[in-house]
Amino acid sequence: MAKKVLAIDDEPEMLTLIKHTLERGGFVVSTCDSGRYAWDELMKIKPDLLILDVMLPGIDGYSLQLKISQDPATKLMPIIVLTALEPSKTLFQKFPQVVGFMTKPFKPEDLLQAAHNAFGRSAPAG
Questions:
Q1: How deeply is 33 buried, as exposed, middle or buried, from its count of CB atoms within 10 A (0-12, 13-18, 19+)?
Q2: 66, 45 contact by CB (below 8 A)
Q3: What single string gives the DSSP state of each residue in 85-106?
């Protein structure tokens, strides 16, 4: 069965790129364009992997990451952080479930490789 991915980013072009890239790699991809709705989408979709932008309207990616890391239902879910702000990487290094960090712009093949690596390095939730 294909792994489910939820991509959270407020840029429509970025969501389209992520969705097409990962679907070509065999993943089932859902998208969300706001931090405000991200938690509800997480609970509804229950993804195997989260692609998370840092700067989001509503709730920023770091605040969302804090909530994810503290909830038993999501704390083991692997996360790849996407950002245009390279310095924000240090904020996310303390979270063991952050298995990848990519600075925008990135190469689609690097994202696909990071997604496949996430499953090689993390324990399945459940």
A1: buried
A2: no
A3: -GGGHHHHTT-TTEEEEEESS-
Q: For residue 108, say if its preceding peptide bond is cis, omega within 30 degrees of 0.
A: no
Residue 37, token pair as written in the block: 């709705």
> Residue written as tokens 């990848």?
100
CATH number, span 4-119: 3.40.50.2300
CA dist., res. 18 & res. 69, Å (int)? 23
pLDDT digits (tens, 9 = 90+) for 8-48: 999 999 999 999 999 999 999 999 999 999 999 999 999 99
Query: How far is 81 from 50, CA to CA, in rounded Å?
Result: 8
Query: Whole-angstrom Cα distance, residue 66 to residue 45?
Result: 19
String of DSSP letters for 7-31: EE-S-HHHHHHHHHHHHHTT-EEEE
Backbone angles phi, psi at 30, to 5 degrees: -115, 155
Phi, psi for residue 33 in degrees, rounded to 5: -105, 15
